[in-house]
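tool=predict chain=A
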Amino acid sequence: MHCLEPPLVIEVEPDLIELNARWNSSARADCAIAVMGKASAPGRAKTRLVPPLTPEQAASLNTAFLQDAVANVLDAGRTAAVASYVAYGPAGSEQFFRDHLPEEVRLVECCLPNFGDCLLRAVCALLDAGHDSACVLNADSPTLPTRYLLDAAAALAAPGERIVLGPSEDGGYYLLGMKRAHHGLFRDIDWSTASVCRQTCERAAQLGLEISWLPSWYDVDDAAMLERLHAELEARADGAHHTRAALRLVMAS
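tool=predict ok
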């Protein structure tokens, strides 16, 4: 590792080691993308959308966002060597994801107190499974263009050490990709603030890492962005199938 500080130790549970062994025995895609997913429970999912939504509506929308994010990664995998994962929480919620996602999506439990540790665990799990590169992707951008995912995979397939960063308009990022688990990228970050992307760039510079940039996109995590999402879907005829259906139910109630 090129970390300036001692690397954070992430323990890999025995069941994850068994999963990795099973994954390693089959054909693998070059780039793995893990959607960071949270099980939908009223009052615990998409709480910043309450109000204007009810807790139940927000939970339903959380499920739809997750399903569309996963569908996006699966679409990328039909064009390029991309494998689909969900890094999920809370602990013990695997059945929720089994019930709502396609069978080919692989699951990794990533439930740790610090969000940076969750991201790092996901990256480590994907790389330990034998993939050449790993990306973590948020589940808050259901209309993210698939070509951005393809661009990320292509950048990581090119020679040379680098990371790929997809900045969010709110100062965070919707995607972070790398070829090795650079622990320093996840340390001393003020998560859930407008400083996340800037601080990540600073960590990358400290580690001597080149950044390949994706176009910026928006997260749907407040009422204003929910209105923007609704307007975008009204203006186009395709994309985000699950989110469209969930929003129709919200608007009809």
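Residues 55-77 form the longest helix (23 residues). Confidence is low (pLDDT under 50) at residues 1-28.
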